[in-house]
TrEMBL record, chain A:
InterPro entries for this protein: ABC-2_transporter, ABC2_TM, ABC2_TM_bact-type
Originating organism: Desulfatibacillum alkenivorans DSM 16219
PROSITE patterns: ABC_TM2 (PS51012)
Domain annotation ABC transmembrane type-2: ranges: 112-344
Keyword Transmembrane helix tagged: yes
Name under which the protein is recorded: ABC-type multidrug transport system, permease component
Automatic annotation (TrEMBL), chain B:
Any single Pfam family the record assigns to this protein: ABC_tran
Classification lineage: Bacteria, Pseudomonadati, Thermodesulfobacteriota, Desulfobacteria, Desulfobacterales
Key words of the record: ATP-binding, Cell membrane, Membrane, Nodulation, Nucleotide-binding, Translocase, Transport
Name of the protein described by the UniProt record: ABC-2 type transport system ATP-binding protein
Keyword Transit peptide in record: no
Intracellular or extracellular location(s): Cell membrane
SMART domains referenced in this protein's UniProt entry, alphabetically: AAA
Entries under InterPro entries matching the protein: AAA+_ATPase (IPR003593), ABC_transporter-like_ATP-bd (IPR003439), ABC_transporter-like_CS (IPR017871), ABC_transporter_ATP-binding (IPR050763), P-loop_NTPase (IPR027417)
Keyword Repeat attributed: no
Occurrences of domain ABC transporter (ranges): 4-226
Gene Ontology CC: plasma membrane
Residues forming coiled coils: none
One Gene Ontology molecular-function label: ATP hydrolysis activity
Amino acid sequence: MKAFWALFTARNKEFYRDRAGLFWNIAFPFLIIAGFAAIFGRGAEPTYKMGVVPSQGEVLSYQLPARVEDSPFFSKVEMPNKEEALEKLAAHRLDIAVQAGTEPLSYWVSDTSPKGAIAGDILEAAAAEPEVLKNYTARQTIEGFQVDYIDWLFPGILGMNMMFSALFGVGFVVVRYRKNNVLKRLAATPLSAFQFLSAHVVSRLLVIMFSTLLVYIACVLMFGFQCKGSYLALITVFMLGGASHVSLAMVIASRGSNEEFASGLLNLLSWPMMFLSEVWFSIEGAPGWVKGLSQALPLTHVTSGMREVMSYGGGFAEIMPQILILALITTVFMALGSWMFKWTG
Amino acid sequence: MDIMKINNLVKQYPKVRAVDGVSFGVRQGVCFGLLGPNGAGKTTTLEIVEGIIPQTSGEVLYKGKPRTRDFAQEAGIQFQSTALLSFLTVRETLATFARLYKNPMDLDKLIALCQMEDILERFNDKISGGQKQRLLLALALVNDPELVFLDEPTTGLDPQARRHVWDIVRTIKTQGKTVVLTTHYMEEAEKLCDEIAIMDQGAIIAQGSPADLLQEHGKGVLASLPAFSFPIDPMTLADENIRVRQKGDNIQLQTKDIKGCLEKLLQAGVDLHSITVRSPNLEDLFLDLTGRRLRE
Ligand SMILES: Nc1ncnc2c1ncn2[C@@H]1O[C@H](COP(=O)(O)OP(=O)(O)OP(=O)(O)O)[C@@H](O)[C@H]1O
Ligand SMILES: [Mg+2]
């Protein structure tokens, strides 16, 4: 136990004295979230870029029919003439171009732009008399709670950052230590592989916890995120996620002293996780094998557990499956990592 | 009593047989030296004995038995090259390592012994090569070991620092500890070691106390003269009592009968103004045994 603490504190000092590492650990997730908050905001809907060609006549007029003017789907850009509007349309810098002062309203879209086709439909619906549309469709809005994308994204980003910090912060360091013989020096002491590994794991978990807490608080204050469910459940699923990723890193770092190879392997693991673990987007509707693969990745269970708690007010009962799976992954990888571990390359 | 006994050790790497059937015993309380040129297999042998790398075959016994987990508690090891935990000061490094052991040495004593007072608050990676060497030596002693392994403890040190390391080794020897070290320096081996084994190409080619080895292999004395002192071909002077060797611009004569040799030189009209006569040292012995210089 004394040996464990000795290594644990040494590792912690190493982390907080490494100012550059500390900075990126906290700044990176915060910047991503701030960036996405700026792009999407809350409750905003996607807009289409509309180029307005002025009416022909004595005075140039950009006046469009009132219902089109009021549509929230378009951001309007005034064009000097038709040629320039069409040029921009062809280059996909506009989604749609509209000629002001025409009746019926004439507009152009590009055949090769899917957004253009949708923009056209929206324009037609907006321009039509509501009375006429009623005969064809009936709009209803769903009752109750909806999650904004940015609120959905937030737990994903926290999870992703945890994954990178766990995989690279441990995997890379251990391989480097093996390469420059730090591990060999430790092997000459009574320290056991398990003591060494667990000191690393616990120290890294502390680091992840600390940096995530800072990011969480800053984001809550600035962007008004909220956690509807149990904080304890949230922390539990997050920390188990951290533990499972750190143990996964231990398996990868258990042998070998080639930093490039280790970093390649870590990238090979982290990239699919970034896209298949529903950090950025849902994979609902993806082929069955993709979903199966996604279930095999620990990060998937972290993001789904966190979302359940934060957005839908879940507690331990609701996320028990995630907690159990992550605990199992941690145990298996930790055992495997200690068993495979080699001090020298 | 032999504290360590090594029997027929072999280490086969894919392309080289780094250690090829090495056997030796280390008596309790002595300083045992492994000598040899680069690539002789010293480090490999030492690291197998320390339990850091596995042998291909052969046996390593500590106090008559295979090593147990206690070995790590009782042995202190200095490797030829190691990096240390980054972002830690020298003092923190010593304290961290001390806490890995059951019975560490008192840190203040250790710091005094290794004269590290001036660098305690510096970061590990912000000290000079010689200071780092001292830190590594201190780490090898941090558990107050019975048995200390030092792999080239003085390589890269200035003469004063080297003498300081020698003092430390002598001090720990007086405390009854056993020291096993490797070195390239014959002077170091002669000064520190009670027993030496000379290694070349993975095998021990001579072993014994420095005095015995010289007695056995380096018989007689060495006389050295510049080549221009000879009016005749020096090789014609060789006989059953005199060995003649060209060493750079000098001619070296090895003989058991210095009087007869000098008479022969005078008769041949050799100019004796620049002659030097000395008894052979381990360096000569090594040259004799391997036909190669130690540090080439
Ligand atoms: N990990 C390894 N893989 C392959 N060959 C190795 C390895 N380690 C050492 N060798 C080879 O084994 C031989 C002995 O090396 P060793 O390091 O034991 O020599 P040494 O006597 O300590 O030399 P030096 O005085 O330069 O430290 C060398 O030919 C070396 O190239
Ligand atoms: Mg060596």
